[in-house]
Amino acid sequence: MLTITQPFRYRVDVNTPANGADASPQQLGAGVVKRATRLADGRELVYYDDPDTTLGPERALDARTLDLRPETAAMRLDALTGDWITVAAARQNRVMLPSADLDPLAPQSPSNPSEIPARYDVAVFENRSPAFGPALAQAAGGAPAALDPPRGLEDLVTLGLGRTRTSVGRCEVVCFSPEHEGSFGTQTVTRARTVIEAWADRTAALSALPGIEQVFPFENRGEAIGVTLAHPHGQIYAYPYVTPRTTRLLASIDALGADLFARILAFEQASERVVLRGEHWSAFVPFAARWPLEVHLLPHRHVPDFSALRDEERDELAPLYLRLLRGVDALYDTPTPYIAAWHQAPVRVGRDAVRLRLELTSPRRGSDRLKFLAGSEAAMGAWTAEIPPEAAAGRLRAALADVPPVEGIAR
C-alpha cells in the first residue's frame, strides 16, 4: 500500500545521483552498462551503453533552466465500468512532429535544448508531461504530489460516484537510438539486445516503486497510430492499478485455469497461424484476432515479465523480434503503423499465471486503407474481423520469406 503522510520535496533514489553527477556504472547482462543521472528539473535519466559502444564514460550536465514539473494528474472513477480515467491537462501541449533540428529526443546541441544532454546509445528518462506521477514530490519549490493516493487494490476496485485519486506512478520515454528517424525494427541486433536489457532493468526498478501495480513497455509507430515524434522510441507506463485488460485476463484465468497460456501456446503452435518459431519464442496470428494485422509473441516457458527472462531468451528475442517487425514492414511498400504492446504480469497478483507476451496490432487493412473503430466496436466492444486470421498469417509468412536474415550477435 502506498502511504504518504505529508507533502515533501524531491526524493533522490539511493542509486540515482543529482543532476550532472554520474552514478557508479552498473554492469548488466549482454555487456550492457547502465549509468544513472538526473535532468535539470530532477527527473531521472538512465543511459544504457551498448557492449561495443564508442562512447566514453562521461555524460554532459543538463544545464537548462526548466519550468517546474506539472502537478501530478488526477484519476476519476467511471462507476459504469470500474475503470479509472486519468485527467492530465499538461499533456495537451506536447510537441507535435518537430523537425530534426528541434527533436526533443536527440542529444542536446547548441541550437537544440533537447531532453537528453549527452550522446547516447539507449536512454530512458521520465516524461516531462506524464499521465501518471510523479508519485512523490518535486524539486525545490515544486507542487506537492500524491496528496490523495490510492489506498491499495481493494480501494481501487471499490465502485462509487465521484471517486478520485491522485495518478501516482511513472511514465518513461525509451529512446532506441540518437538518430532522428526509425523504429525498433530499424535497429541492429546489438542495439535491440541493449533495449531488451533496458526494458528488464526498468521493469524491475518501476515494480519496486511504492504504489505501482503493473508495468507496461510499448512502442507506438506511425502517424496513423497518433505518434507525435518520428524519433525511434517507445514508452513505459507504471500504473497504480491493474489495467482493465489484465483484469479481464485474470477473470479468464480464474475460469479456465492457471495453465491457460501454456494451453494457448500449444493450441497455436499446432495451427497454420504460426509465422515464426525459435527455440524460446513463438509468434502467431491469434485464433480470434481483432485487427487486420495482429501478431502475438510468447516465450515457451512461463515468464511473468522482462526481468525474469534468462540470458538465452533475451539473446534469441533480439533477432527474432527484429525479423518479425521487418516482416510486418515487408507487407507493403511503405512502413506499417502499429502498436507493439508488451503485456506483463501485475506486480502483486497473477504472477504464476499471467505470461509476458507481445501483442502487435495494426489498423492497416490494405496498402491505402485503415480499419477505423466505428459504432459497434468503439461503442459496444463488439468486433468484426474482415481478414481471417489464417489468411493474415499466410500473408505475413510470405512477407517474412522475403526478409533477409537478421545478422549480428545479441551479446
UniProtKB/TrEMBL annotation:
<comment type="pathway">
    <text>Carbohydrate metabolism; galactose metabolism.</text>
</comment>
<dbReference type="InterPro" id="IPR019779">
    <property type="entry name" value="GalP_UDPtransf1_His-AS"/>
</dbReference>
<protein>
    <recommendedName>
        <fullName>Galactose-1-phosphate uridylyltransferase</fullName>
        <ecNumber>2.7.7.12</ecNumber>
    </recommendedName>
</protein>
<dbReference type="InterPro" id="IPR001937">
    <property type="entry name" value="GalP_UDPtransf1"/>
</dbReference>
<keyword id="KW-0119">Carbohydrate metabolism</keyword>
<dbReference type="Pfam" id="PF01087">
    <property type="entry name" value="GalP_UDP_transf"/>
</dbReference>
<dbReference type="GO" id="GO:0033499">
    <property type="term" value="P:galactose catabolic process via UDP-galactose, Leloir pathway"/>
</dbReference>
<keyword id="KW-0862">Zinc</keyword>
<keyword id="KW-0808">Transferase</keyword>
<comment type="similarity">
    <text>Belongs to the galactose-1-phosphate uridylyltransferase type 1 family.</text>
</comment>
<dbReference type="Pfam" id="PF02744">
    <property type="entry name" value="GalP_UDP_tr_C"/>
</dbReference>
<dbReference type="GO" id="GO:0008270">
    <property type="term" value="F:zinc ion binding"/>
</dbReference>
<feature type="active site" description="Tele-UMP-histidine intermediate">
    <location>
        <position position="233"/>
    </location>
</feature>
<dbReference type="GO" id="GO:0005737">
    <property type="term" value="C:cytoplasm"/>
</dbReference>
<feature type="domain" description="Galactose-1-phosphate uridyl transferase N-terminal">
    <location>
        <begin position="76"/>
        <end position="242"/>
    </location>
</feature>
<keyword id="KW-0299">Galactose metabolism</keyword>
<keyword id="KW-0479">Metal-binding</keyword>
<dbReference type="GO" id="GO:0008108">
    <property type="term" value="F:UDP-glucose:hexose-1-phosphate uridylyltransferase activity"/>
</dbReference>
<keyword id="KW-0548">Nucleotidyltransferase</keyword>
<dbReference type="InterPro" id="IPR036265">
    <property type="entry name" value="HIT-like_sf"/>
</dbReference>
<dbReference type="InterPro" id="IPR005850">
    <property type="entry name" value="GalP_Utransf_C"/>
</dbReference>
<feature type="domain" description="Galactose-1-phosphate uridyl transferase C-terminal">
    <location>
        <begin position="269"/>
        <end position="399"/>
    </location>
</feature>
<dbReference type="InterPro" id="IPR005849">
    <property type="entry name" value="GalP_Utransf_N"/>
</dbReference>
